[in-house]
Amino acid sequence: MPIRVVATGRVTEAPSRLLGEDVWEVFVLDPFPDVEGARLAHACEVVCRGQHVAASALESVKRGDRVVVSGELVMERVDGPIEDDLSAVRIWIKATSVASPHSSDTP
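Above: the chain sequence. Below: its structure as tokens.
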């Protein structure tokens, strides 16, 4: 069963294009940009697949921007050695839309 998610935060790594059969843009979103401290892992990878979503992300998303991401939460098993059961899963967002928090496109 898919898990729908809407996440807001700051872009900490600008979109990068991944080459393959489909057009993908990937960026890193920090949903807690005002929380500081050593060893806090709270950033999330956002994957924009498909020509429309990927092109929109590449053109409009820059490092430091605050954005609202809508999409599906994806969880994948991690291969290889793991530290504990919590680190056995990689979590990312498969975006269906990315918008400014003040945009009329925001869900």
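The mean pLDDT is 80.
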